[in-house]
Amino acid sequence: MFPRAWGRRSLLQALPPRITPKSGQDRSRDNGFMFPRLVLRGCQLWPSLLILFVLFGQISHAQGQERLNLRQAQFSHELAPLEQEISLPDTWRQRGLPARGQGRYRLHFTLDQAPPHGQAWALRAERLSRLHRVLLNGAVVHEQADSEAMRLHASPAQTWLELPSALLRPGPNELVLELYYQRRAGLSDLWIGPAAELEPGYQWMRWREAQLPQWINMLAAGFSLLLLLVWMERRHERSLGLFAWLCLLTSLRNSVYGLSLPLAWVQALDLFFYLAQVASIQLLGRFALAWSERALPWYRHSLRWTAWPLLLGGVLASWLGALETWRSWAYPVVLLLGLPALGLVGLRAFRVGGWRRLALAGAMLLMMGAAVFDYLVGQGRLSVMHAYAMPWIQPLAMIAFATLLAERLVVALRQSERQQAELERQVAERTAQLQAAHLAKSRLLDAASHDLRQPVTALGLLVGMARLQTQEPRLRQLLDQAGEGVRGLERLLKGLLDHSRLDQQDRPVQTTPLRLQPLLDAVLVHAGPLARERGLRLRVRPCALWVRSEPLLLEQVLRNLVSNAITHTSQGSVMVVARRRGAQLCLQVRDSGPGIPPEAQQRIFEPFVQLGNPARSRQHGSGLGLAIVDQALRRLGHSLQLRSAPGRGSCFSVLLPLCEAPSEASAAPAPSGPSEADKSPAVAPQTIWLVEDDVELQQALSQQLEAWGHCVCSFDTAEALWAQWPAPPDPAPDWVLADHRLPGMKGETLLQRIASLGGPSRLALMTADLDPASGAILRSAAWPTLQKPFSPQVLQALLSQTTTAPVLPTKPAT
Predict the structure, then answer these.
(1) From what superkingdom does this record's organism come (predicted)?
(2) Which long-range contacts (CB under 8 A, 24 or more apart) does 297-305 make?
(3) pLDDT classification of 260: cutoffs 50, 70, 90
């Protein structure tokens, strides 16, 4: 029947154009895991959802006004060349012919007039072979390329073919269909007419047989995933897990029944159907054994010893092109394996009372009937117009099983909740004990913070001063090493204390309006020397906006981010930028460093984690800086974002809530921060009065300041300095450096008294206190604050200022 030239033609040239109707998109919503009660509610809503889908399909895919319906044809077969009159739809096997082979249909129709010029006409068939050749009035209009692969998978499918309207003529017209089938041979009745009038009917056909079953089964697959989530919380419920996997596999298999796939995928899809069918029976058998709580060793062994031969045999048969033959032998075996499973489920169903027994029995009968029906349809023993029933029956049948399994889980969950209540009582007692121990640790850290920072500051100043006073190279080298050790000790001490204090979640954080510019100015003062030492450019863009945060914690965040960027950048620059994003301010720290690989971008915020430093070199900090940043931002409620790639640097972004400036702050002139010109380490000799109750630190500071050429006058208490304060016209000192925590009068009280006199003296406060409440009080003052321990470079940068601009607490690189 088929010309020899047919098999040699290009497949691309012969592919018929198809009209793909528009379909909705599946939308899944992740509403979280709500345990079996949600499963029960889903079972109750399932029939309603199905009815809504059907109604939606009837409304949105109403049929159009089709024109010509062809129901009579002359048919000839390769085994019976003489034509005979038949009626459509036609099923070969019902007329005694094989369900595979070649056939030819000749149809006639009459047109009153030729179609208007330019009007598109089409042919619509509900069942027509994928391997076909169509002739209209003797001219070939569509031809599917013949090939061995195409012959193996030639089966009836929904078809839309465009017809050249120029070939249609008034009066009699002839349409010839030359078809080849591998299985389910036959032909539905045909519709011919204008494409615009036939398309609604084609869309309805596609909706009814392809899209609606797909949507229903995709919903069933989502429901199966919910059951899997329940099972993952209760792994000992083996029957629930097997049932969920069974429903998921069958739903996915049913979802691809109506897909129109390229020829290259047809063989793989055919194999997938076979493997899914075998796996479904295996899962059904194991589920039946687990749910019925029966051993049945003979059935368990039958499932085990037939699984791999059936699966591997199908793969081998598909590779050899004999899957259809293998399927005809394997499917009866698969059906026989499913019968004991249905029997076990039936026995268990009769042990369930009430309406559930009827529901389970009905579901079993439906599943069994659908399996037999689909087998007969696949073998071509039923009408070619029949579609597979399993895509419709399986989602409905799973309702009864899922409801029963979910109710069983609810009972178990109630027992678990009672046990959990008792466990929570015991946990509450243990938590109270841990909180008491945590409070004791916090108090110890509060007491140790001040006492530990004082000697470390003195040690750093003494080592730096000793290095300046010696000229012997070997001794200078030893002092350099000692200085590096002191700086490492400072970083580790501050990191440990900061990290431990930030872990105190019982202390509420009080946020206040904060002008960002002083924070940015302080970056130039305190991080500038380290950046210049490493040959980097530190750039800070000015920002006049106000944000709401806690000043000390925000200072710790910015200092650690900038120090981290400088430490890990070997060349280029580090930039601090503030950008408005709606009601928020995005504070960014950018660097031109080596970048961070994606797999390490979460790990770097863990304590003591350092990338590219397996030897734990102190030059790369202590590994606590970003951990402190993460903890501080969690307490503040600010979000942190990281963009980085290897070789492209890193960008850390902190989102801060914007706020209006306080009225008193808006009226006052903003203090000016240090400029790039103020970074020079050279400072002219000045008169400095120092108040420090720690003897070692007082001596170290005095010696360091005198080594720089300053005139220093030291005091142990604030009262002693206030008693010696010169009255006009005697000159006042250029600087007053006072410790915060002094015996008697506090340092800030002393500076407030001096400031009230209105003299020319510049004031600064030194503190080892990290308490956020105390830090907020210190930041509200109009003088700089040095956070101990601080380096000589930071002290010299402070003395080089020509104004009393506040300086943020110092924090070394971590």
Answers:
(1) Bacteria
(2) 299/340, 302/337, 303/337
(3) low
For residue 329, count other CB atoms closer than 10 A to its CB: 10
**Tokens matching residue 768:** 């080892």
Structure confidence by residue, pLDDT tens digits, 333-350: 988 888 888 888 777 777
Q: Choose among 102, 104, 69: nearest CA to 88.
A: 69
Distance CA 463, CA 54 (A): 85
**Cβ atoms within 10 Å of 152's Cβ, excluding its own:** 19
Q: Nearest-CA neighbor of 620 among 570, 568, 559? A: 568
Least reliable range by pLDDT among 141-145, 408-412, 618-622: 618-622
Strand order in the sheet with 687-691: 711-715, 687-691, 735-739, 762-767, 785-787
Q: Which of 739, 686, 740 lies closest to 713, judged by CA?
A: 686
Going by C-alpha positions, the residue among 98, 154, 111, 135 that lies closest to residue 3 is: 135
pTM for the model stands at 0.43
Do 578 and 585 meet the contact criterion of CB atoms below 8 Å apart?
Answer: yes
Tokens 């027509």 locate to 128
The SS3 call for residue 640 is strand
Measuring CA to CA, which residue among 265, 272, 251, 254 is closest to residue 130? 265
Q: Look at the chain and count its residues.
A: 814
In three-state secondary structure terms, 659 is strand
Query: Domain 68-203, what architecture?
Result: Sandwich (2.60)
pLDDT value for 66: 44
Classify strands 762-767 and 735-739 as parallel, antiparallel or unpaired. Answer: parallel
- In whole angstroms, what is the distance from residue 417 CA to residue 197 CA? 62
Tell me the CATH number for domain 440-506+684-814.
3.40.50.2300
- Residue 788 per-residue DSSP state: S
Would you give the DSSP letter of residue 708? T
Higher-pLDDT residue of 468, 779: 468
Q: Which of the four CATH numbers 3.30.1030.10, 3.30.2310.20, 3.30.565.10, 3.30.413.10 does domain 510-679 have?
A: 3.30.565.10
Phi/psi-derived region of residue 246, left when phi > 0, alpha when psi is between -120 and 50, beta in every other case: alpha
DSSP H or E run through 318:
helix 297-320
Tokens 């806690």, residue?
550
The total of other beta-carbon atoms located within 10 Å of residue 546's CB is 20
Pick from 462, 442, 533: nearest CA to 789: 462
Domain ranges of the chain: 31-61+213-413, 68-203, 440-506+684-814, 510-679
Task: Judge whether 209 and 384 are in contact, CB under 8 Å.
Answer: no
Tell me whether domains 440-506+684-814 and 510-679 share a fold: no
Q: What is the pLDDT of residues 497-512, one digit of tens each?
A: 665 656 655 556 778 8
